Amino acid sequence: MKRHLLEAADLDRADATLVLDTAGQIESALAGREVKKLPTLRGRTVVNLFYEDSTRTRISFELAAKRLSADVINFSAKGSSVSKGESLKDTALTLEAMGSDAIVIRHQASGAPHRLARWVKGSVVNAGDGTHEHPTQALLDAYTIRQRLGRLDGVRVAIVGDVLHSRVARSNVWLLSTLGAEVTLVAPPTLLPVGVGSWPVAVSYDLDAVLPKADVVMMLRVQAERMNASFFPSAREYSRRYGLDGRRMATLPDDAIVMHPGPMNRGMEIAAEVADSARSTIVDQVGNGVSVRMAVLYLLLGGAPE
Amino acid sequence: MSTLIKGARPYGEDAVDLLLDDGVITAIGTGLSADGAQVVDAAGLIALPGLVDLHTHLREPGREDAETVETGSRAAALGGFTAVHAMANTDPVADTAGVVEQVWRLGQEAGLVDVVPVGAVTVGLRGERLAELGAMADSAARVRVFSDDGHCVADPALMRRALEYVKALDGVVAQHAEEPRLTVGAQMNEGDRSARLGLAGWPAAAEEAVIARDVLLAGHVGARLHVCHVSTAGSVEILRWAKSRGVQVTAEVTPHHLLLTDECAETYDPVFKVNPPLRTDADVQALRAGLADGTIDAVATDHAPHAVEDKESEWASARPGMLGLEQALSIVVQTMVEPGLLDWRGVADRMSVRPAAIGRLADRGADSHGRPLTVGEPANLLLLDPTHRATVDPAALASRSRNSPYAGRELPGRVVATFLRGTATVMDGKAQK
After folding, report:
1. What is the mean pLDDT of residues B20-34?
2. Do B309 and A87 touch (CB under 8 A)?
3. Which residues lie closer than 8 Å to A257 by C-beta, 6 or more apart?
4. Chain A to chain B, count of Cβ pairs less than 8 Å apart?
């Protein structure tokens, strides 16, 4: 694997499969153990550099690093030197001078991890950059699909919602198509990027037409603020046309699953009865996130110190 | 003091000698001699009229850490320029006679090029009410080009009034064409690459819609309009249509839009962030064709120096803009001359004659620019070695800033010497002060 994990688009099929397989091995290695910890990254330091609030992603990375016995430092932009105007570069060099081996970065600017990777010697893991990518989310989604359906090749995945602003959607588009899935994006045209035609996906504006042919439905979070910028007329209309409720769920094939990267807007893009149904993998996704992130850190940091 | 240039090829044509005396070209011919004259061996070099830039950001007053009139003037002279228009988005904004006279005076003191101030169209570039355009025109700076560059004069009624009002000043409004409501938060050209990179898109239509509106307004009121940094194929088509209808519209293209595409954004290196953004290869080809056929009148650099901290950041928080003065001619050689789209007379036309005419610099007597290389004309000229090729090293630039998008690129052509009214501002590729 490469030194950094910056985007899912970088991963070829062999690399992506290696991450998923490694996550599976880690999971079996830990299964049934009393102490859920491996000594692999003892003496290594992982910094969680979070410029956006994201409790669940940060905790997931923190747990992943700790279960590999790494030292973990959480650096939140709020209340730090960053809020005093320190630049990303200065912050990164400071952290590296303190001996960090890997930086896990969440940033509101697309491409921030790419910039960081040019300034530091250690590994950089993208934990979500602006509206660009969130590669570990896509890896855990792929892992979850494979776990539930036993395969990825030929699996029909519908990704529904605010694709335009979604880093989860972008990462899943690249990763799932690399792994052989057939992806269909479903959204109002206002929430699809100009240029989506060059992506390896099908596009539909009609959720009802797509659901009966979907093995996986991945619902994206839609922020109600978007309606103020006229991306759609109202939350109610959005929900009516693109929300997944019990009636729509009933049109899915028998084995189909429903996914959501969280946090959910219950009642907006997903109804409570769907989120809590047996088809829902939402809780599995959270658990798998830790295993997949352990696999990523393990593969990037290579186990032993250099 | 007189200078005898031996064996230069004016416009790339037959080699001749040129005698410069007292700021004027006093003789052109073969086998010239002059007692006491400084002799410059120009064998193999091409002589062109001194270049005129319609669009330069010199950052003074206000951001002297990024550029000063003096450092920008030095960069300009090294690029073969003898006159540059200094944009108004300084701090304070050049929206009064006082500020434009300050910039003009700083240019005279630096003495490397004629710095011609551009006046703001609206007070503080805010797009609300007209600045005192007449006072700036009547000042010592003799402002003829007015622009809110960096911002679009977006209000159509205000734009109409500005176009009309400057008719009395023999002026021109240079529009930064960008519909602001269509470019909120925009980071790069909107298309396949922005979709993938997750950077908010700047649609071509946001430029084209304003150009379409403004050529109609200029035609309606019979005023002159100049369009800054045209960047899309659609804009070229609209300009071609407007010119065919007799609208008094002129336009410029930047060197970077002639060479670079939005592919550069894939690095997320903000040195490639610029406004308007780098577009697609199809746009680049249309811009070259438009410049070749004269639909686009001029090459203008939009030289935009930025301090390191304003570029060494994540893309979205970086300032837009890139350096251009020192590489402009090289890029025109690479993109226009070498592919056969423009000959040397064409280069002189698009980089000297027409920009000088647009800025009303061609009829200022001894202070004129954009005049032909003939006897009796002001001795503003450059000598270019077209065979020289070198790799751009930002650290070696004269600009105070380092945000060159051409770092590491090999480009053709080297300005060996530049003369401003007969005085060498550059000799052997080095600034003379």
Report:
1. 96
2. yes
3. A145, A148, A149, A215, A216, A217, A279, A280, A281
4. 74
